[in-house]
Amino acid sequence: MRIVSGMQPSGRLHLGNYLGALANWKALQDDHECFFFVADWHALSTNYEETSHLRTYVRELLIDWLASGINPERATIFIQSHVPEHAVLHVLLSMITPISWLERNPTYKEQQDHIERCDLSTHGFLGYPVLQAADILLYKAEAVPVGKDQLPHLELTREIARRFNSLYAPVLVEPRALLTEFPKVTGTDGRKMSKSYGNAIHLSDTEPVVRHKLKTMVTDPARVRRHDPGNPEICPVFTFHKIYSNATVVDQINQECRTAKIGCIACKQFVADSIVAQLSPIWDARRSLEANPKRLDDVTQAGRARAARVVTHTLEEVRHAMKL
Q: CA-to-CA distance for 166 and 133, rounded, in angstroms?
């Protein structure tokens, strides 16, 4: 299948991003034709007032992708704004997309209510789902990896494709959802791991920083003293064990926590060792990439060229269908 997915450059990636997206991308690139892009134009929809860090965020995102195993020999990796055809199709699709479709976008009102750092009553924010549709439809993607909460966005892309095909000619492909179980990764404070909460373990954190963050991680609130038995199922540290530790360690922690045979400090040490072991190859790869910035340019230039060959053909078909 041909698959398209993107990610906004809004800061350093953390374990939640890796487990929720990058690990899935790594698996998909081995068996499918994948296009993965840095959605820098999308980042402007909610961060248009502050762009001074955008180039740095783009660079850090690419480093995290490559260090995590996204392989430019297997997948096409590029920066959205380097392929201007995304903007062209966005304009053309905006001409046929009803305002009512955009206003019913479930995140439109939600983000307006919750994001207070800038005014979101802009044309760009209202219309970003059309740009999102262009990102996908340009490549005639057969599938898009999404979680259940993203299904309404993908359905809007499908509706826009149907409307275009009905008005002009059957050119655009309606992509199907490739449903992915995105695990809810708990942050150090017990809430969902998020950049905005300040509770994240980043892929770019050093080993001492990772170990320090895990030492401060909240545990079972009912376990006040060392000899108090705990309940692993409500402990955020145990959720990390289930993700990162092997089955033997998970069983051991599960039993010894409930009988107070192991304390929280030792429990955290076990999971810290497991996480550090799995992050170490990423750290090594990051250091190599940081020492060779030309590598990033080579990857994105090659990706732009491969992407351009596909989107140029799609736009030619679109223009012909629209009699442009």
A: 16
